[in-house]
Amino acid sequence: MGKFYPPHAGHHALVRATAARCARVSVVVAPARRESIPLADRLAWLREEHADTPWVRFVGRYDDRPVDYADPAAWDAHCAVFREAVGADPVDAVFSSETYGEELARRFAAVPVCVDLRRRAVPVSGTGVRADPVGHRRWLGPAVRAWFVRRVVVVGAESTGTTTMAAALAAHYDTDTRATGGWEERYLGSASAQVRAAARRPALYLLTDHVGVPFDDDGLRDGAHLRGWMTERFRAELVDSGVPVVELSGAHPQWLSRAVAACDELLAAGWSLADPLVDPTEAATST
């Protein structure tokens, strides 16, 4: 039972240790609604990681009750959430890597089993991951690492330098469905609801301006007369995206300089995740 904010190698080690000793395992993922990583994502990541142990089930419940290990009423409130998630079957053992594991087991009339309390086998915590995802990436599964990737998307009309810019910063840039929607409207007359619904929010858009950029007719491009319209469509679309937009104009070397500066600023800002609910007397160390 925990927040798994986010799931990391320490959590997986605990689940595997439990699965190795139990015929049935229930893992309750219980974040507060204020937290930044969706509950559905955490459940999906855990189920994917532990697909080889089908006797382990992952159950998600939101738990917005205050955390206070010294307050019996707070314990009662949290345990009510956990009990509802686990079901009516008796709990034989509670496996935990937390100091509160013993009290939690007592309240379920179960045997407490402590696993790597001092984090010696897997020296990682949720607090550490949230503070520095890149520095802790070795402890994260591929799907979790992908969630933390800062996505920078280059968009623009035909022959405005988007390919050049993407190639110059290939390690950081990709297309996304918002850009796809713009091109869908260009060729089909409208952008479908399915494409717009699939748009995943990036961290930054770079919009290449067509002004002053010669049209390069490579035999496939056919939209020289539409470049101005597409630039304005992308500009209007991105205004409502809620994502920072940097427009690139002028000579290409200047574009690259501005793009690199924008990316450096983005990366320097780090990640801003909402804090979990924690006991007021101690810092969260592994949620």
From TrEMBL:
<dbReference type="InterPro" id="IPR052735">
    <property type="entry name" value="NAD_biosynth-regulator"/>
</dbReference>
<dbReference type="InterPro" id="IPR027417">
    <property type="entry name" value="P-loop_NTPase"/>
</dbReference>
<feature type="domain" description="NadR/Ttd14 AAA">
    <location>
        <begin position="174"/>
        <end position="251"/>
    </location>
</feature>
<dbReference type="Pfam" id="PF13521">
    <property type="entry name" value="AAA_28"/>
</dbReference>
<dbReference type="InterPro" id="IPR038727">
    <property type="entry name" value="NadR/Ttd14_AAA_dom"/>
</dbReference>
<protein>
    <submittedName>
        <fullName>Transcriptional regulator</fullName>
    </submittedName>
</protein>
<dbReference type="InterPro" id="IPR014729">
    <property type="entry name" value="Rossmann-like_a/b/a_fold"/>
</dbReference>
